[in-house]
Amino acid sequence: AKIENPELTYAAQVLAQMSKHNNSFFAFGAAIAEQHRDYFLSQSLSAERLAAFELQAQESLAAQKTIEESDTLSFDEFLAEYIK
Questions:
Q1: Among the four residues 2, 16, 23, 47, which has the most C-beta atoms within 10 Å?
Q2: Is the alpha carbon torsion for 34, 38, 39, 44 positive or negative?
Q3: Three-state SS letters, the chain
Q4: How far apart are CA 49 and CA 69, in angstroms?
Q5: Domain boundaries, the chain
Q6: How many whole angstroms separate alpha carbon 28 and alpha carbon 30?
Q7: pTM value surpassing 0.70
Q8: What is the pLDDT of residues 17-57, one digit of tens each?
């Protein structure tokens, strides 16, 4: 399908912002990342949500340990199997 208003696409909007501020793609990405960081740092986190994240982190680390302890292949064996 033909795009009727290509200037409305996300890619065109990114290019327009880069051009407007005379930015490289890297500088544009860094600026967007900084905006997102500032936004999320400004948000409050309830005790319940923090506890849920902490529990999720503990469960993830436990699952990682289980996976790593059950691994019986050496890296060389894994690599040989992988590139077959």
A1: 23
A2: positive
A3: CCCCCHHHCHHHHHHHHHHHCCCCHHHHHHHHHHHHHHHHHHCCCCHHHHHHHHHHHHHHHHHHHHHHHHCCCCHHHHHHHHCC
A4: 30
A5: 1-43, 45-84
A6: 5
A7: no
A8: 899 888 898 999 999 999 999 999 999 999 999 999 999 99
